[in-house]
From TrEMBL:
<dbReference type="InterPro" id="IPR025992">
    <property type="entry name" value="Haem-bd"/>
</dbReference>
<feature type="domain" description="Cytochrome c">
    <location>
        <begin position="324"/>
        <end position="443"/>
    </location>
</feature>
<dbReference type="GO" id="GO:0004130">
    <property type="term" value="F:cytochrome-c peroxidase activity"/>
</dbReference>
<dbReference type="GO" id="GO:0030313">
    <property type="term" value="C:cell envelope"/>
</dbReference>
<feature type="domain" description="Cytochrome c">
    <location>
        <begin position="32"/>
        <end position="142"/>
    </location>
</feature>
<keyword id="KW-0349">Heme</keyword>
<dbReference type="GO" id="GO:0009055">
    <property type="term" value="F:electron transfer activity"/>
</dbReference>
<dbReference type="InterPro" id="IPR009056">
    <property type="entry name" value="Cyt_c-like_dom"/>
</dbReference>
<dbReference type="InterPro" id="IPR036909">
    <property type="entry name" value="Cyt_c-like_dom_sf"/>
</dbReference>
<feature type="signal peptide">
    <location>
        <begin position="1"/>
        <end position="23"/>
    </location>
</feature>
<protein>
    <submittedName>
        <fullName>Cytochrome b6</fullName>
    </submittedName>
</protein>
<dbReference type="GO" id="GO:0046872">
    <property type="term" value="F:metal ion binding"/>
</dbReference>
<keyword id="KW-0732">Signal</keyword>
<dbReference type="InterPro" id="IPR051395">
    <property type="entry name" value="Cytochrome_c_Peroxidase/MauG"/>
</dbReference>
<keyword id="KW-0560">Oxidoreductase</keyword>
<keyword id="KW-0479">Metal-binding</keyword>
<dbReference type="GO" id="GO:0020037">
    <property type="term" value="F:heme binding"/>
</dbReference>
């Protein structure tokens, strides 16, 4: 019999409302629950499919059925690899928010393991006690590692949280970074700045399919928003930059984007600016360099959080902040496989997901280009092909066109396509509309002013 994917539903999104846990839960309690969850996964055979070193069963070499088993195991890996999680569970360490949400939701939905798999693999089904342990572990882990103390008690265990206003930055560096972010001298022909592609007045993007760089050249991937980039686990669609500073160092040397030859070319121009140099030396006595310039820009970008959206206010307890239809859209967002990947304060940026889990996006779209290989371009690993960083959904109404390829013009169409290709859901027009309108409640504030299409 065909071997089924062990945790078919782990990609499902949403959450289960649980009682609030005291955020002071000690590490010993987390460790105890984590080891219990690891034991459950081992005893129920989860690693038979969802491990990096998972081995084919004996019937995996049989004619016909063997190909189906291999396909199922590959599909399981595309959905969720548990290997790193198992190591974290053993040590009681912080598990990625996405992994946490996937495990929590699939358990609550009884999609781990799938029914057909459990029918031929006795002992693989989760017991009521197993589910209770996993739910407790998810709740305690979220309270211990991720709760920021801003959500109302009834929403404290949601997979998404309100953005918390922060002041953990150096104001003098921020001021310099702001100037450099908007300085066209970072480009080879003095025409392109960081803000050219990531305009703070247009949602942190340029609202183009592909950005225009030096000498009128056009790139081949859609520019992601710089707003809330501070929350990303890694930077760029393929995660090739470790942090904001590494990201800031990429475009100036990119021959299509800003086209400078080297940092000496840039620092030579900046050193001619007496006033800027004087200001810069007060903060960076070592002067202009690739390291100091990108450090200042990164410090500025840390300030580009956009709190206080209507949705944030709702999560903080203001039930008037959303309409009943918008709340219904949020519930569909959780029901239809969205909130396990779009997690945390930024509602994204914490994982790399396979584009086309439920249907072949690239076969349907047509010709492939290099950026379509996604995370594989950064790691060189075939398993990472078509994986992309889950984008933040904050201010998503403002950042069209959508997808890494900039191929989608409207929020409704982006919603419909993501439901189809990532969740396997053929949603009705009404459901798509409800979810899209919920997403419009994610527009926050920058500099104390609401971000909206009317202000662009």
């Amino acid at each position: 019999m065909r071997k089924q994917i062990l945790v078919l539903g782990l990609v499902a999104a949403g959450m289960v409302i649980c009682p609030v846990v005291n955020a002071s839960q000690d590490s010993e309690g987390v460790l105890k629950l984590s080891k219990q969850v690891k034991t459950i996964f081992n005893n129920r055979g989860c690693m038979d499919c969802h491990a990096s070193d998972a081995e084919l069963p004996f019937y995996g070499e049989l004619p016909v059925i063997g190909n189906m088993v291999k396909e199922d195991m590959e599909n399981a890996q595309n959905h969720f690899n548990l290997s790193e999680v198992m190591n974290q569970l053993e040590k009681g360490q912080q598990v990625n928010e996405v992994d946490l949400a996937k495990i929590e939701k699939s358990t609550a939905d009884n999609t781990m393991p799938p029914t057909q798999y459990a029918m031929v693999h006795w002992g693989s089904s989760l017991s009521a006690d197993d589910k209770a342990v996993i739910a407790d572990w998810a709740k305690v882990s979220r309270a211990t590692f991720y709760a920021n103390g801003t959500a109302a008690a009834e929403f404290a265990n949601e997979p998404v949280q309100p953005i918390k206003a922060r002041q953990d930055y150096n104001e003098e560096k921020v001021a310099l970074g702001n100037k450099l972010y908007h300085d066209t001298r970072l480009s080879g022909d003095n025409t392109v700045s960081c803000a050219s592609c990531h305009d703070l007045n247009t949602g942190g993007v340029d609202r183009l399919k592909f950005s225009k760089g030096i000498n009128g050249q056009v790139g081949d991937i859609n520019a992601p928003t710089v707003f809330n980039a501070r929350y990303n686990h890694l930077q760029f669609w393929d995660g090739r930059a470790e942090d904001l500073q590494a990201q800031a160092g990429g475009p100036p040397m990119n021959p299509i984007e800003m086209g400078s030859t080297n940092w000496e070319e840039i620092t030579g121009k900046l050193n001619e600016d007496v006033e800027l140099t004087r200001e810069f030396l007060k903060v960076y006595p070592q002067g202009f360099s690739g390291e100091t310039i990108t450090d200042a820009i990164a410090e500025f970008e840390k300030t580009l959080a956009t709190p206080n959206s209507p949705f944030d206010r709702y999560l903080k307890g203001d039930k008037t902040a959303l309409t009943s239809a918008e709340v219904e859209g949020y519930n569909l967002f959780k029901q239809y496989n969205c909130a396990t990947c779009h997690v945390g304060e930024a509602m994204g940026g914490q994982s790399f997901e396979k584009m086309g889990l439920k249907a072949n996006y690239f076969a349907d779209r047509g010709e492939m280009i290099t950026p379509d290989y996604g995370r594989m371009n950064a790691t060189g690993l075939e398993k990472d092909i078509h994986r992309f960083k889950t984008p933040t959904l904050r201010n998503v109404e403002l950042t069209a066109p959508y997808m890494h390829d900039g191929s989608v013009e409207t929020l409704e169409e982006a919603t419909r396509l993501m439901l189809k290709y990532q969740s396997g859901v053929n949603a009705s027009e009404e459901e798509v509309k409800l979810i899209a309108n919920f997403l419009r409640t994610l527009n926050g504030e920058y500099g104390g002013k609401p971000l909206s299409l009317n202000n662009l």
